[in-house]
Amino acid sequence: MKLETIDYQSSDSAQRFVESLRETGFGVLSNHPINKELVESIYQEWQAFFNGEDKHDFLFKPETQDGFFPAEISETAKGHSVKDIKEYYHVYPWGRIPDSLRSNILKYYQEANALAAELLSWVEAHTPADVAVNYSIALPKMIEDSNKTLLRILHYPPMTGDEELGAIRAAAHEDINLLTVLPAANEPGLQVKTKSGEWLDVPSDFGNIIINIGDMLQEASGGYFPSTTHRVVNPKGTDTSRSRISLPLFLHPKPEVVLSERYTADSYLMERLRELGVI
Ligand SMILES: O=C(O)CCC(=O)C(=O)O
Ligand SMILES: [Fe+2]
């Protein structure tokens, strides 16, 4: 299996993108409308934020989940026992954001959401009728004006050699949400698990956008669109001294949206957050 990079502006991009999602759980787009200079500035200014001490003034609130999550309380992926080697910040437009970082990150939030709505319309248009009949409302409508869509700025610090045995930057997991939109990070490491069980590097050319299916789209499509296992592996050799910054946007429907006969978006999210131990 190979992950192809698809030119967003080509005439058959929608169809090829949805085929790639269906086959691999991932789609990689080049030539897309997200501003690369903006992403680069965000990587630089958030690297400085994570290197500094002010981050401790923005410690996350368990009730609202916005703010800074230090490495000591970082996530343990479902089914794993060792914490990931990462710290991160959760940005919601209604949440706390350091003043000097606010303008660029909210601009990005808005641009990435606009692209995401278009990509969801591609997914909808290329869903077979017998699957689409189960969507309770159109997929782009599910995220319209949602205050649950989460932009996470992740910082994987340089390796020190003192990491817990078996710990990696992000242990194998599936995302909870509908789709995740992720600009290629400033360092490699992201891998996807293929249907036959091998790990494949996701092309990490700066300027690509990577999209993957989350569990909520799998649930809403009755399994037609597979949520795919992925991870971030540790760097080796001289690269161990480098930080990695990444910027996943997790598209979450409005809480009341019906996902399936079993779940609303809210009941699904609460079940998963309880399993993760973060609420
Ligand atoms: O850092 C990355 O490239 C991916 C992060 C990720 O998979 C996640 O936070 O869910
Ligand atoms: Fe993920």
**Could you tell me the number of beta strands?**
13
Number of domains: 1
Outline: globular
Q: In what range is the share of β-strand residues? A: 15-25%
Which structural class best describes the helix and strand composition? alpha+beta
**Rg for CA atoms:** 18 Å
Helix content: 25-40%
> What is the overall number of helices?
7
The molecules bound to the chains, other than polymers, are:
2-oxoglutaric acid, fe (ii) ion
As residue ranges, the low-confidence spans are none
What are the secondary-structure elements, in order, as H or E? Answer: EHEHEEHHHEEEEEEHEEEH
Could you name the CATH homologous superfamily?
Answer: B-lactam Antibiotic, Isopenicillin N Synthase, Chain
Secondary structure: elements and pairs:
Blueprint: E1 5-7, H1 13-24, E2 26-30, H2 36-51, E3 67-69, E4 87-91, H3 99-125, H4 129-132, H5 139-143, E5 150-156, E6 170-173, E7 179-183, E8 190-193, E9 199-201, E10 209-213, H6 215-220, E11 230-232, E12 244-246, E13 249-250, H7 265-276
Parallel strand pairs: 1-2
Antiparallel strand pairs: 2-10, 3-4, 4-5, 5-12, 5-13, 6-11, 7-10, 7-13, 8-9, 8-11
This protein binds 2-oxoglutaric acid and fe (ii) ion.
